[in-house]
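**Sequence, structure tokens**
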Amino acid sequence: MKRTLKPVIFMVVFAIVAFVASFYTSSCKFDKCKSIVCAYGGVCNDGACECKPGYQGPYCETISRNKFLGLWQVEEQGTITPHRYYALSIEVGNGKDATLVKIHGLYNYFGTLLGNVSGDTLTIPNQQMQGKTIFGKGYIFSSKEHGDFGSIRMYYEVVDTATGVPDDFGVYSSVDTSKPSVWIR
């Protein structure tokens, strides 16, 4: 009986050691998100914050649209409009939605257009106003000449709804050799 009891005791001890080792290693895993706090409703996943739309940064601490807000000096020439300079402004859109902005004075013609911000991109969704349809997309960037977020390259098009004639600012540059509108602070 002593001979049959030894293997049973060995198996029981081995099972206990395996269980303890398994429990010990699984309980010692490091939680990469334990000390990370993500702002504005962001969620930590595997040590990095995943931000809600409209927020960015390592901890979602930056409201993306804020870098677009303010007064911009525009230089542009469309496919039918002459070379010109004018000012426009970008303001906060709906205070609850961090992606929305209002653009005042675009094309040196429009009152208030709506736009959406995602990261470094400003999108003007297709909208009609004052007998024209407008849409476009632009990108904000830093440069030595204009500093942090001091310039936007805006690719947009304005179409006269009565005649169907487009005025292009870089949207179809491969077809009509148009150039984007340049906005500088």
